[in-house]
Amino acid sequence: MDTCYRCGGDVMAIGSLISAVRTSFRPQDTKFLTLETGDVMTKAMMCRSCGVIEIIGDVNKLKRLTSEPDANTAKFVAPATGD
């Protein structure tokens, strides 16, 4: 079970941050083109004791967006050759 890093409480409410649409994270240093959006979805947890809100992002998608190109994406970022 998760505990609050602020007060040590052990009762967390799981949810998400909402404005006009669900909140996401967009990494600044995306290194290659991808067929998926550049947004990393987030979820949130709020401590029921002190109210602190912790935001958690999808680390697997972040890795896909910021890693070096693989065989499927390398053709999109290969430098142009002078023919």
Query: Which residue ranges are poorly predicted, with pLDDT under 50 across at least 5 consecutive positions?
Result: none
Helices, by number, come to 2
- Element-by-element helix/strand order: EEEEHH
Distance between the ends: 60 Å
Report on this model:
It contains two helices and four strands; from the N terminus they run ββββαα. By secondary structure, the protein is an alpha+beta fold. Strands 1, 2, 3 and 4 form a four-stranded antiparallel beta sheet that branches. The chain is elongated and about 50 Å long.
Task: Write the SSE topology.
Elements: E1 12-15, E2 24-25, E3 40-47, E4 53-57, H1 59-66, H2 74-77
Antiparallel strand pairs: 1-3, 2-3, 3-4
List keywords for this structure.
4 strands; four-stranded antiparallel β-sheet; elongated; 2 helices; 83 residues; alpha+beta
What's this model, at a glance?
With 83 residues, this protein is of the alpha+beta class. Strands 1, 2, 3 and 4 form a four-stranded antiparallel β-sheet that branches.
